[in-house]
Amino acid sequence: MTATFSQISVMPGVWPTTELLERLRAMSERSPLVLSEWPSADSVDRRAFVGTDAILAGWKDELGAERLAQLPALRYIGLRATSTDRVDLDYTTSHGVTVSPIQGYGDIGTMEFVAEQLLRHARNGGPGCGELAGRRLGVIGYGSVGQGVGRIAAALGMDVLFHTPTPRLTPADGPRWAPLRTVLETADYLTFHSPAYRPVAGIDELKRVPSAAVVVLTTLGLPMAEADLIEWQRNRTGKVVLDLCAGHGLSHEAKQVPGLELHELYAARTTESVRRAEAKLLANLTAGLNPDERESR
Question: First and final CA of the chain: distance in angstroms?
Fold first, then answer.
C-alpha cells in the first residue's frame, strides 16, 4: 500500500488497539505518533508532531484553533466519534482541513446498557420484583439510539413516549411523539439521547419529572447544567444512572449527591464497537481526501 500521509498522530481519546496501529504504519511514511497528551514546546515528540498531516482524535480530545494552528501541514482529521463539537470547524473550513467523523459504531452497546439499567432498577426497586411491562418510558432525543431504545422498551411491553423539537407522526401501536412537558411529567423511566454537550432541560423542566422516576444518561456530556442536576436530584427519591460519557468532568460535589449512580464504563465501548469504530476510522483514512468515499459527514 502506498503511504497516503507523511505523519499520522493519534490522540489519547482514540485508545488505539495494536491492530489499528499496525494498519496505520502502512498508511504513513513515518510510524504513527501515539500521544498521551498534546505535546508541549519542549516535548520529545514535538518535532515529529509539527509535521503531522493527519490526526486521529476521540470525543474527549480538544481540537481548537489555537492547537490546530500548531500543525501547518495538517490536512485531515479523523474522528473516532460521531460529534464534531470539540473541533473548530471554522478553522478547518478556512484552512482546507477535512474532518471525518464516524457514525453508529456504539449504538448497540448504548442501547443494551440502557435496557440493562431499566431492567435492573425494575427488579431491584423495593419490596417484590417489579416489571417494566405497562410502565412508561420517556425518551428525549430520537436518533438511531433513541429509536433503538424505544423499540426494545416497546418489545418489553412498555408504553413509550419520545420528544424531539419537531413533532413526528407515528403509529398508534408503537413509540409516540409527545411534547416535552408530557414526556417529563408522565415518565416512570426516562432516558436522554440528545445532541452532544447540549443542555436540553433546565431546572424548571426537571422538576416536572416524577420524584421516583429512574433516569438513565448516556449522552456526551450532561443534557442539563450540572448545578441543575445537583439541585434537582437532592430533592427526589429516584435514581439517576450515568455512564462515563455523561459523567465526564462531573464534579466531586455532584458525584456525592444521593441517588446519583455513576458507572465506571462507557456504554458505547464494547469489544464489538471497538472493531466497528476502528474499521470505520480506517475506511475514512484510506479514502483520504476523497469526499465521495468517506462516511457521510
Answer: 26
What lies within 8 Å, CB to CB, of 253 at 6+ separation is 230
Nearest-angstrom CA–CA distance, 61 and 178: 35
pLDDT tens, position by position, 230-287: 999 999 999 999 999 999 999 999 999 999 999 999 999 999 999 999 999 999 998 8
Rounded distance between C-alpha atoms, residue 62 and residue 207, angstroms: 33
User: What are phi and psi for residue 77, nearest 5 degrees?
Assistant: -125, 120
- Give the chain's domains with CATH numbers: 8-105+271-287 (3.40.50.720), 107-262 (3.40.50.720)
Output the pTM of the full model: 0.89
Going by C-beta distance under 8 Å and a sequence separation of 6 or more, which residues neighbour residue 293?
286, 287
Residue type for position 246 = A
Q: Count the alpha carbons within 13 Å of 139 in the hemisphere toward its beta carbon.
A: 28
| Cβ partners under 8 Å of residue 46, min gap 6 | 39, 40
Residue type, 195: P
DSSP letter, residue 244: T
d(CA 245, CA 216): 12
Rama region for 94: left / alpha / beta (φ>0; ψ in -120 to 50; rest): alpha
